[in-house]
Amino acid sequence: MLEIKIEKDFIMDILNGIVKYSTSDIIRKIFNLSTKIKFRNNIIEIRVLLFKYYIKILKKPEFISGIFEFEHNLPISTINQNKLPKYIKLEKKKLYLYIPENFLSKNLHLKEFTFDNDEIIIKLDNY
Question: What is the mean pLDDT of the chain?
Fold first, then answer.
């Protein structure tokens, strides 16, 4: 079994990149200065000033490739969806992350995918 742990600092860097290219300068500055992020109980909590947002795991594929479905309360009206990466689709209450299939991903069974202790934990098995 292969276990991958992704720390919240890495996720914060990814979120900063998304915010950098898909929002206005004011929102980007507020996000960079005041954002706090926590991972626990399969929920990512994001606090920006007085606002509290979350991203929660709803569905995950059997293998590492496929569509991950999340519930969220992000302010999508402030996000330019045309500038999001093509593998991320954002709807009013749902976020979809598409991982394309390749030789490696189609042979790795996704045993566990959780948010906890300020980490994303991914456990994989050969199928």
Answer: 85
